[in-house]
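In the previous chapter we treated chains in isolation. Here, by contrast, the input contains two separate entities that must be folded as one system, with a combined length of 782 residues.
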Amino acid sequence: MNNFNFYTPTKVVFGKGVENQVGELVNGEKCKKVLIHYGGQSAKKSGLLERIIKSLDEKGIRHVQLGGVVPNPRLSLVYEGIELCQKEGVDFILAVGGGSVIDSAKAIGYGMTNDGDVWDFYDHKRQASACLPIGTVLTIAAAGSEMSNSSVITNEDGWIKRGYSSDFCRPVFAVMNPELTMTLTEYQTASGCADILMHTMERYFNQSENMDLTDGISEALMRTVIKYAKILMSEPDNYEARAEVMWAGSLSHNGLTGCGTDGGDWATHALEHEIGGMFDVAHGAGLAAVWGSWARYVYKGRPERFVKFAENVMMVSGKDEEDTILKGIEAVEEFYRSIHMPTNMKELGVEPTDEQIEEMAEKCSIAKGGSCGIVKQLKKEDMIEIYRMAR
Amino acid sequence: MNNFNFYTPTKVVFGKGVENQVGELVNGEKCKKVLIHYGGQSAKKSGLLERIIKSLDEKGIRHVQLGGVVPNPRLSLVYEGIELCQKEGVDFILAVGGGSVIDSAKAIGYGMTNDGDVWDFYDHKRQASACLPIGTVLTIAAAGSEMSNSSVITNEDGWIKRGYSSDFCRPVFAVMNPELTMTLTEYQTASGCADILMHTMERYFNQSENMDLTDGISEALMRTVIKYAKILMSEPDNYEARAEVMWAGSLSHNGLTGCGTDGGDWATHALEHEIGGMFDVAHGAGLAAVWGSWARYVYKGRPERFVKFAENVMMVSGKDEEDTILKGIEAVEEFYRSIHMPTNMKELGVEPTDEQIEEMAEKCSIAKGGSCGIVKQLKKEDMIEIYRMAR
């Protein structure tokens, strides 16, 4: 078992109607002016933004707005946000949306509290020393950014998608009303579920000795997501299912499912980042499209772990070890198909040429310092092979 | 599913040798002077206190000491601690020990930041508005106080044992080296495991709708504690087992296993508090001694929950619902016997008279405003009956 740190300071306020507590929660932070950061029109149309503004106004909290965050959030909007916050004297960011909005808020927060170009952190040239306090009102269960230490930004100059992690950016509160996710499209819901599942799978597939307690928690979480994702396909308004998935999203990425391990594999995320950077796909769908190929390429690097996964999470077993492993991988793909997620890039709507695959592998290799993954260490040629298998 | 808040700001630093990071962790809190609070001689004899002092001295952090905390920590020492801290200008408390030491530190912390008698909070006459920051170096896996919002103090004037909870007292950090627990006696280890198990069981047995994810996490946690408690009886130096139990102790009482529920039953704790207050027994052992009688008295109040517990945690099933329930209860008692824990008060070494049972039930009833428990609401006459069954 590895030594570990566990730090999740985010105050979670979970359940029906909790968005009306936003004013009170922000007021507790004793800030001067709030940036309300959000995405498209849905937060406006649904009336959510209006309720949040009302809640802030009731507490006499001043605020400015910046919308327009898109999936795979852009560096250019981050720069715009930093400029606005500087001009307006903003000292607290309220992210109203999903992972993209929260990640964009985190990047703005870094930019407001550190000198120089904020992209330096995502380019891993230097470390941040602070971040503005961030609160979140979550509208999609997926990225887990509402409790996590990570954020991912896409630089349009070269379409490079990069992540940066530090405890400074962990949100001070997360307001989570599962009802707010009922208006998502089926595709958004399913992509979110795939993302949640993958956050725990990345940690579960590792090369360390393990912690039974962490494994048991992870397995429960993965079974829960699979069960309720399927229910949501036919019952999008099922509150219990929305709530199970939403809470799983936070616990999947706040560090809990990695305690005592080596941190996990994360190659699927690295491979997807390049697909997302080049083709701008939904993150969860991109992960689903590449995972099966990754699994088949690497499982011999730690077969006993794939067996445990097959038996305890997918509840399948075969006539021998390898058969069990392959049945487990097939069961994941079958699950993805059942929620209309892709299991390859073609189904994802992306058909990269050989040159594009070469370029994605090259970029991935550079971003990860030559290789990624831990179940099997993947070099550029391995990445090319997995991209081809996933084509 | 119920709305819930989840707030666990404690920074956990877990693993071998982590006690040497104490100086750095305290330094990060920017305090002027630290009270090192501890129990008996074991922290001195083992050299732990010396290492902690060295770690503080290396950072130039001033400190004073107050030892002498006993199990079921006393109000008189809390008063002494408050006086010492006021005199010395202490603004940070470092608790080196188990639940009793941490709880005593929390009470001192309340006393330092609120006017009036600190017992008022435990007597539920008023609410605290702050607490000094507290760091912990954990030496026994049991109470979960290192991440929890609760503390329990015994007032020698009437031997009244009372708990008080508020988020103010959640420790800022918890330094957890499982190796430090290897010198515990078998009885201390087993009592700790019983306490950990009960913290999740109290939450698991409730009357609300439930959250699958919380249930799955709770069941994994309970299975883990049972498995490794047994291993520790023959292998007290097994690091993995010590680590599994230690982490389970924190997660069992930091709120995670109650998310989405009504908060749980807690009658066993209430009943044990009176035994502990009158006879000064080990808390975990006291819980073990009374749980079986509680379970047999109340299970008809929510049979389906007891069935789920029997099947998913104790891995037993019977010929019908009632048989499964009783087999589950017996399996818990069998587990307790396997780790040499009592399953009744006689085995606990306590033989209360009818008058003493009447007095305990009377005190419990008053402390809980007339009744306790939620699987079945227990009034004074129910408490008397359970105490008699457990005699």
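The interface with chain A takes residues 1-9, 11-18, 209, 211-213, 215-217, 219-221, 223-224, 227-228, 239-240, 243-244, 247-248, 251, 256, 259-260 of chain B (CB under 8 Å). Residues 33 and 91 of chain B are 6 Å apart (CA to CA). Compare these points with the single-chain example from earlier in the chapter.
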